[in-house]
Amino acid sequence: MERFLLEQVIGPKGPLAGETVKRVTSIKGGCIHQAWRLDLSNEKSFFAKTTSNESFEMLEFEAIGLKSLEKYSNDSFLVIPQPIYLQKFQTASILLLPWVNMHEGNEINLGKGLALLHKCSAESNHKYFGWESNGYIGSGLQPGGIKNSWGDCFINLRLIPQMKIAKKWGLDLNKFTKLLSKLIEFLNEHSPSPSLVHGDLWKGNAAINEDQQGIIFDPAIWWADREVDIAMTKLFGGFSKNFYEAYESIWPLPESAQTRNNLYNLYHLLNHANLFDGYYKNQCIDILTELEVTFLNE
């Protein structure tokens, strides 16, 4: 960790002013920012992300996401680490969070906690879908904007921007104009209530703590159909049967939810194809082909 940033954290105006850092440990796993564990002499520990100033907006969006999710969460079931310090300096930026010990374990409280978050936010009677400002999905841009209809939001603010980027690897957006129009109608007929969603809910962004509470972090929040979170938990696998049963015990999904999984996950697969290439491109083409068969051959 850069000495300058460490000095700011423990300096007179820093969030840990006067404390002594006993150990700084580099944390592996992040591909966008550098991550660190800070152990203090008073036995407290913290988690820090550092990045270049060009990427400060990513840290800022993460902090906004964590704070926003906390407003609707029930901490009996779900823990959402809250930002302690976010600062942009001349040469680098930092986000400081509490250190949370993460374990594998029973995902019942994780499932219930997510359902309660979705339900509580939906009951706040939010009036639109989307998010007012630009955000990020991984290192990819998640365009800002708000829409009154769900189909208009998902297709025009999520799928189409990714499909435009996908032109670089051969995807022709113009070939899918009719399909996208049909998909807007399909999602508008579904007409869900807006819920605040995590937005990037795969196994790497969730865990269990020592008290068996669920933990979620690294969000890509927006107001959406709650099913987008559930669909993504199935994209890369890893969530247990207990998780889904617990979720359904709080707020059951409609029977038609499974018909939207591939469509919702197309957003994430396009983002992965645009960032990483590889087999993700084939998965995108396969889903688009399936959707054409379903919606253009009715």
For the largest beta-sheet, the strand count, sense and barrel status come to: 5 strands, antiparallel
Determine the CATH topology of the largest domain: Aminoglycoside 3'-phosphotransferase, Chain: A, domain 2
Order of helices and strands: HEEEHEEEHEEEEHHEEEEHHHH
What does the average pLDDT come to? 94
**Outline:** globular
Instruction: Report the structural category.
Output: alpha+beta
Beta-strand fraction estimate: 15-25%
The overall number of domains is 2
Total count of helical runs of at least 4 residues: 9
Number of strands: 14
Under the CATH scheme, which class of the largest domain? Alpha Beta
How would you write the strand order of the largest sheet? Answer: 1-2-3-6-5
Q: What name goes with the CATH superfamily of the largest domain?
A: Aminoglycoside phosphotransferase (APH), C-terminal lobe
Percent range of helical residues: 40-55%
Report, as a whole number of angstroms, the end-to-end distance.
58 Å
User: Mind telling me which CATH architecture of the largest domain this is?
Assistant: Alpha-Beta Complex
What this model shows, in words?
The chain is an alpha+beta fold. The protein folds into two domains: 3-98, Phosphorylase Kinase, domain 1; 108-296, Aminoglycoside 3'-phosphotransferase, Chain: A, domain 2. Helix content is 41%, strand content 19%. It has helices at 3-10, 56-72, 108-122, 150-165, 177-190, 227-235, 241-250, 261-276, 280-296; strands at residues 21-27, 34-40, 45-51, 78-79, 85-88, 93-98, 129-131, 135-137, 140-142, 145-147, 195-197, 206-208, 214-216, 222-224. It has a five-stranded antiparallel beta sheet with strand order 1-2-3-6-5, with helices on both faces. The protein has a three-stranded mixed beta sheet with strand order 4-13-12, covered by helices on one side. The longest helix is centred in the N-terminal third of the chain and has 17 residues, at 56-72.
